[in-house]
Amino acid sequence: MDLWQLLLTLALAGSSDAFSGSEDSSKEPKFTKCRSPERETFSCHWTDEVHHGTKNLGPIQLFYTRRNTQEWTQEWKECPDYVSAGENSCYFNSSFTSIWIPYCIKLTSNGGTVDEKCFSVDEIVQPDPPIALNWTLLNVSLTGIHADIQVRWEAPRNADIQKGWMVLEYELQYKEVNETKWKMMDPILSTSVPVYSLKVDKEYEVRVRSKQRNSGNYGEFSEVLYVTLPQMNQFTCEEDFYFPWLLIIIFGIFGLTVMLFVFLFSKQQRIKMLILPPVPVPKIKGIDPDLLKEGKLEEVNTILAIHDSYKPEFHSDDSWVEFIELDIDEPDEKTEGSDTDRLLSSDHEKSHSNLGVKDGDSGRTSCCEPDILETDFNANDIHEGTSEVAQPQRLKGEADLLCLDQKNQNNSPYHDVCPATQQPSVIQAEKNKPQPLPTEGAESTHQAAHIQLSNPSSLANIDFYAQVSDITPAGSVVLSPGQKNKAGMSQCDMHPEMVSLCQENFLMDNAYFCEADAKKCIPVAPHIKVESHIQPSFNQEDIYITTESLTTAAGRPGTAEHVPGSEMPVPDYTSIHIVQSPQGLILNATALPLPDKEFLSSCGYVSTDQLNKIMP
Amino acid sequence: RVAPGSLLLLLVSNLLLCHSVAPLPICPGGAARCQVTLGDLFDRAVVLSHYIHNLSSEMFSEFDKRYTHGRGFITKAINSCHTSSLATPEDKEQAQQINQKDFLSLIVSILRSWNEPLYHLVTEVRGMQEAPEAILSKAVEIEEQTKRLLEGMELIVSQVHPETKENEIYPVWSGLPSLQMADEESRLSAYYNLLHCLRRDSHKIDNYLKLLKCRIIHNNNC
């Protein structure tokens, strides 16, 4: 029993002690904060608890000391101002404030030290918040969704920035109004900063606080600045919806009126020409196609004589002419599709086919004979034998079509000009193919010549330009009928011997031609007598016969002698080696043997560079 | 009020705060050929002093954290710094009252007086067992930059007060023996004191230079 009582007493005593102790400890004043806002004054605050514990603490006092010169005086002085900083505070004005001198303060109550603290003023610097926050709009994004603003403020008034006593750095924070977390920006030394990418439709809050650089703590935040960005979206949307009907009507009427006037005051043709402009027609400068239509060869001669070395010898007996087989009996022969198809036996129809160059639209349409060149000049599949075989036939046909096609006169706006152009193709007679056409070669020469002679007027009807559609192995050129071919004239005039050169007639505007064609042509060196004439002027014009080969290779007579006995497939088009106007053209004969299969098969388009590679 | 030179200050100080970056010598060709303006000289000086103070603060913090934290050194070691004999302004009013020429001489004296302590600090820390690399590197850097700052200040003085006679009087530091004491406590206390003084003096120099810059260059309107 005694033991229990003892324990109980002890417990009670202990608890009472504990209570009293806690009360006492909770009532002791402590320093809460010392702060210097501008490094010129500072103040210290402490807690003040109402104490009604057993102990009577008495009035609280603050004593401070600071080290002067080299001595730690330990002389405690009482707080000079208990009032200015409020309750439970001590205010040290500037005369009591030294910067690089450490202070110690202590709080006493009833003579007993309650709390003590040592510091230097720089450590307790906490600037006032910045003032005069404002913002300006920098720009708005193109979408109108985001905007940038520039926030400006001023340093707190009591911080002496001007004299350099304080150097402050600032921290800006912002957030949307309904958010809880502030976004912080890095500390900056200047008093304005851009805030990027704020959403236009949201309202933002911005606040700034300052701190002395390198020491002290951040001060309080400034007042919150509310940023409401102007809602530009709505305006733009409204503008979008505003459809300018009036303007549309006015301009529509205006445009219609203009068009009406255009229609009224212009002929139909002109409009058609405006809308669908014709493909430029190859022509020689100074030569009027109409002149040729009229068939006045003398005038044409004189005109062509302007160009260098133009020999107005349309009617010369050259091999070109010789090999032309006229097929006058079939007026609509050209309408039956490819002449070469007709010339060739049916099984060879396709064989020859895709020689030459796909010439696109140029030239053909200008001749207004779209159906003439239905023959596939694609050099996709060139079969040497068959193609060669096909050559003469087709050439013949083309030549026929081109030069001595009186029947074409009605159809083509341009008259066939040159029968002689057909001849080169027919030189292919040496091909040794048991084709009706090649065998006719020799005869056709005469025939052609005969025809030519017999049809002097036909020359007038011959188109000024003729597209070479095929090349005989002999190097003669088969020209497409009904084509304007100014070089065709010269072709016609060429001596048959010159036809030997394989002519790779790469079409005018596009410098693409079949490699196979190019290759084929090179070794094919018909025994065309090379004339020394060169027609450089032709180079500049848009002619069907390619101008690349219009080189001054006057020294190609050797090739001319070469008899194309090989099974060289003759392409549809050969580059003109020499233009011997009016005799005709010497076409480049590729020196290569049968080109590689892939070369042949790759025939489609060959660039000029490739051609130059192929050609010797 | 942000002076135009503050941009330069900011830029250079940003560079400096990447600790390993040090500013170039102000006049590589020799002081005689220098044509730097006074404003630029002050800008450079402020940047240097700011840098040195940053380093000193960091060095002190690291030392304290590592060796003396929580051991009450601050109360014990608020001793005299060897520069305390100099009559340095302790608050703004005093700083405003001191005249320009004396102010500049004062700064130069403080800088000169720290040449030797810094040299010994580096030597001693380097010779320490387990020399703390962070502290050592900062000490080396501070020593280097203080020399540069001293050169710059001498240039400024020669421009602002060319007639000033070279005054070589400066407080002498005699704390080397205490740095080498056998007793670790005493030794640590000596280091603590030295670093504390260094931090304080570097802060003073930084502050004084900023005051002078605003006074001389910007006419009290920074």
TrEMBL record, chain A:
<feature type="domain" description="Fibronectin type-III">
    <location>
        <begin position="129"/>
        <end position="232"/>
    </location>
</feature>
<dbReference type="GO" id="GO:0006897">
    <property type="term" value="P:endocytosis"/>
</dbReference>
<keyword id="KW-1133">Transmembrane helix</keyword>
<keyword id="KW-0597">Phosphoprotein</keyword>
<comment type="subunit">
    <text>On growth hormone (GH) binding, forms homodimers and binds JAK2 via a box 1-containing domain.</text>
</comment>
<comment type="similarity">
    <text>Belongs to the type I cytokine receptor family. Type 1 subfamily.</text>
</comment>
<dbReference type="GO" id="GO:0004896">
    <property type="term" value="F:cytokine receptor activity"/>
</dbReference>
<dbReference type="GO" id="GO:0005886">
    <property type="term" value="C:plasma membrane"/>
</dbReference>
<keyword id="KW-0472">Membrane</keyword>
<keyword id="KW-0325">Glycoprotein</keyword>
<feature type="region of interest" description="Disordered">
    <location>
        <begin position="331"/>
        <end position="364"/>
    </location>
</feature>
<dbReference type="GO" id="GO:0005576">
    <property type="term" value="C:extracellular region"/>
</dbReference>
<feature type="compositionally biased region" description="Basic and acidic residues">
    <location>
        <begin position="334"/>
        <end position="362"/>
    </location>
</feature>
<keyword id="KW-0732">Signal</keyword>
<dbReference type="InterPro" id="IPR015152">
    <property type="entry name" value="Growth/epo_recpt_lig-bind"/>
</dbReference>
<feature type="transmembrane region" description="Helical">
    <location>
        <begin position="242"/>
        <end position="265"/>
    </location>
</feature>
<dbReference type="InterPro" id="IPR003961">
    <property type="entry name" value="FN3_dom"/>
</dbReference>
<keyword id="KW-0675">Receptor</keyword>
<dbReference type="Pfam" id="PF12772">
    <property type="entry name" value="GHBP"/>
</dbReference>
<dbReference type="InterPro" id="IPR013783">
    <property type="entry name" value="Ig-like_fold"/>
</dbReference>
<dbReference type="InterPro" id="IPR036116">
    <property type="entry name" value="FN3_sf"/>
</dbReference>
<feature type="signal peptide">
    <location>
        <begin position="1"/>
        <end position="18"/>
    </location>
</feature>
Automatic annotation (TrEMBL), chain B:
<dbReference type="Pfam" id="PF00103">
    <property type="entry name" value="Hormone_1"/>
</dbReference>
<comment type="subunit">
    <text>Interacts with PRLR.</text>
</comment>
<dbReference type="GO" id="GO:0005615">
    <property type="term" value="C:extracellular space"/>
</dbReference>
<dbReference type="InterPro" id="IPR001400">
    <property type="entry name" value="Somatotropin/Prolactin"/>
</dbReference>
<dbReference type="GO" id="GO:0008284">
    <property type="term" value="P:positive regulation of cell population proliferation"/>
</dbReference>
<comment type="function">
    <text>Prolactin acts primarily on the mammary gland by promoting lactation.</text>
</comment>
<comment type="similarity">
    <text>Belongs to the somatotropin/prolactin family.</text>
</comment>
<dbReference type="GO" id="GO:0005148">
    <property type="term" value="F:prolactin receptor binding"/>
</dbReference>
<keyword id="KW-0372">Hormone</keyword>
<keyword id="KW-1015">Disulfide bond</keyword>
<feature type="binding site">
    <location>
        <position position="50"/>
    </location>
    <ligand>
        <name>Zn(2+)</name>
    </ligand>
</feature>
<dbReference type="GO" id="GO:0007595">
    <property type="term" value="P:lactation"/>
</dbReference>
<dbReference type="GO" id="GO:0046872">
    <property type="term" value="F:metal ion binding"/>
</dbReference>
<dbReference type="InterPro" id="IPR009079">
    <property type="entry name" value="4_helix_cytokine-like_core"/>
</dbReference>
<keyword id="KW-0964">Secreted</keyword>
<dbReference type="InterPro" id="IPR018116">
    <property type="entry name" value="Somatotropin_CS"/>
</dbReference>
<dbReference type="GO" id="GO:1903489">
    <property type="term" value="P:positive regulation of lactation"/>
</dbReference>
<dbReference type="GO" id="GO:0005179">
    <property type="term" value="F:hormone activity"/>
</dbReference>
<keyword id="KW-0732">Signal</keyword>
<keyword id="KW-0862">Zinc</keyword>
<keyword id="KW-0421">Lactation</keyword>
<feature type="binding site">
    <location>
        <position position="206"/>
    </location>
    <ligand>
        <name>Zn(2+)</name>
    </ligand>
</feature>
